[in-house]
């Protein structure tokens, strides 16, 4: 009888370890009503209605293991080229704390001579990776995630010559039924 109990305990521990090691991660989507464009307004006339606009597309926002990745594309929807000097992204958790990126990428980085000129309909990618604590693997497998990561806000800032634009994108995690 003792041998049987030991075997049952061993199998139970192995099953718990396997569940804990199975990191499913999860994805995010733009919250309903989130902005879809960034108006770029001249700093000398911030109320000017003739702002140049860039459309926003969140390509990917997901947590896997201890990493959060956010990839956003900005598209030039103006009828003329836009010369981008800088594009940046800051991500905050549900408590408003700024997440510190472990790596970042922007289409304006690495240019030998800024600005980066985008022709009409051309895109600019902005990406960042963050180290986060998604929660304990066994609890994630049972449907419990770190509540601080339930809602994120990604603030995108664009500078193009004398034009500036900033937009805040609310991101919400997908239901566990949609976990990847």
Describe it.
This protein is mainly beta and 180 residues long. 14% of the residues lie in helices and 46% in strands. Strand 3 and strand 4 form a beta hairpin. The longest helix is centred in the first third of the chain and has 20 residues, at 2-21.
How many beta strands in the DSSP annotation?
A: 11
> What gyration radius follows from the Cα positions, in whole Å?
21 Å
Task: Flag low-confidence runs.
Answer: 13-21
Report the order of strands and helices.
HEEEEEEEEEHEE
List the defining traits of the structure above.
180 residues; mainly beta; nine-stranded antiparallel β-sheet; two-stranded antiparallel ribbon; 11 strands; elongated
Task: Summarize the model shown.
By secondary structure, the protein is mainly beta. It has 2 helices and 11 strands, in the order αβββββββββαββ. It has helices spanning 2-21, 137-141, and strands spanning 26-30, 37-42, 52-64, 67-76, 82-84, 86-92, 101-106, 116-118, 123-131, 151-160, 163-173.
Please render the helix and strand layout as text.
Blueprint: H1 2-21, E1 26-30, E2 37-42, E3 52-64, E4 67-76, E5 82-84, E6 86-92, E7 101-106, E8 116-118, E9 123-131, H2 137-141, E10 151-160, E11 163-173
